[in-house]
Amino acid sequence: MKPANALRIAGLAAALAFSTHAPAQTLADLEPPEALIKAAKAEGRLMLYTSMNDNNSRTLLNAFEKRYGIKGETFRAPTAPLVQRFAVEHDGNGVAADIFSVASPLPFKNNPEWFAPLDKSFAPNLANWPKEGVHERRYTWTNEILALAYNTEQVKAEEVPKTWADIINPKWKGRIVLSDPRAADNYMGWLDAIETAFGMDFVRKLGAQDFKLTPSGASGVQMVAAGAATLNLPTIATFATPLIEKKAPIAVIYPGEPQLASARDIAIVAKAPHPQAARLFLNWTLSLEATKLYCGVNAVAVVGDPDGKAGCVPLRGAKEVNFEVSEERVRTLTRELGLNK
């Protein structure tokens, strides 16, 4: 990561993902059988459906193409609409995606038939991934702290909210763009954790801040960088990275008390049009090469590099958001926030 990013993305190395982790084996660059590589190259294409930002997806796909000659495409959307689109495609037998990745385990848990079982026979790099991050039909890739982005031309450094409690200060009224909690499980998990920490009256006060809504942190940081809003929350730091690289007036911090993290999973689509390319890509994302690449352009923690030996942010102690907020509680939280009017 460039020094400018390290300076402007503040506080990431404080407490990140989860309180404990089992020691991982050293990541490697293990190749699957040559027959699979040949078959994947014959397919020649790969489609990634994801909620991660386009810059991250393109960085990975470009490197994958350079290594194997397989052209990658990506479709990005916030988690909820992405899942809806994929469900329609799956039920209509018109699946376009080969790989599916979102920052929520629920689509994988609730719809296991959508995804193919993982197997070390085609993904030998699974053997070096921490066991707690490997599941039957997906693996947990990254853990990211939920962040707050702010416009550096509109906010002095000493004024930036340091904790989540600071966001209801009257000075921010009309200046916040809120990532819609209904659009992604991790954003709803954030709202759930905020209410647990500060109470329902805090949620009502946040609702009185006259915020704008955005469907994702990706569009929220764009609004902040353009000066259309002063703060965006919650968001993911990697959404802001390309803007920071372009010297846009935006920076990211990680409010504490509580500090909250969400995990991102990856899976192979069961009806993938290019199944061999999907298998090859998944194995490559588990490699040391891909991990170094991803962490070289993002301040992020990767499950396979818990100690940061490959250049990732070391995993420390932060609270994982609840991805399974009950429907009744969702209705209550959104009502008190003023979203159900």
Taking the sheet with the most strands, its summary is: 11 strands, mixed
Helical element count?
Answer: 12
Query: How many beta-strand segments?
Result: 11
Distance from N terminus to C terminus (CA atoms, Å) equals 44 Å
Q: What percentage of residues falls in helices of 4 or more residues?
A: 25-40%
Q: Assess the beta-strand content as a share of residues.
A: 15-25%
Q: What would the CATH topology of the largest domain be?
A: D-Maltodextrin-Binding Protein, domain 2
Tally of individual domains: 2
- Unreliably modeled segments: 1-22
Structural class, judged by helices and strands? alpha/beta
Helix and strand pattern: HHEHEHEHEEHHEHEHEEHHEEH
> What is the class of the largest domain in the CATH system?
Alpha Beta
Would you mind describing this structure in some detail?
The protein is of the alpha/beta class and 341 residues long. The protein has two domains: 25-142 and 266-305, Periplasmic binding protein-like II (D-Maltodextrin-Binding Protein, domain 2), CATH 3.40.190; 144-261 and 321-334, 3-Layer(aba) Sandwich (D-Maltodextrin-Binding Protein, domain 2), CATH 3.40.190. Helices cover 35% and strands 17% of the residues. It has twelve helices and eleven strands. The chain has helices spanning 3-8, 34-43, 54-68, 79-91, 106-110, 185-198, 200-207, 217-225, 237-245, 275-285, 288-297, 327-337, and strands at residues 45-50, 71-76, 99-102, 139-151, 176-179, 212-214, 231-236, 250-253, 260-268, 301-302, 319-320. Strands 1, 2, 3, 4, 5, 6, 7, 8, 9, 10 and 11 form an eleven-stranded mixed sheet that branches. Helix 3 links the parallel strand 1 (45-50) and strand 2. Helix 3 runs antiparallel to helix 11 (288-297). The longest helix has 15 residues, at 54-68. The protein is globular, with a radius of gyration of 20 Å. The chain starts with a helix and ends with a helix.
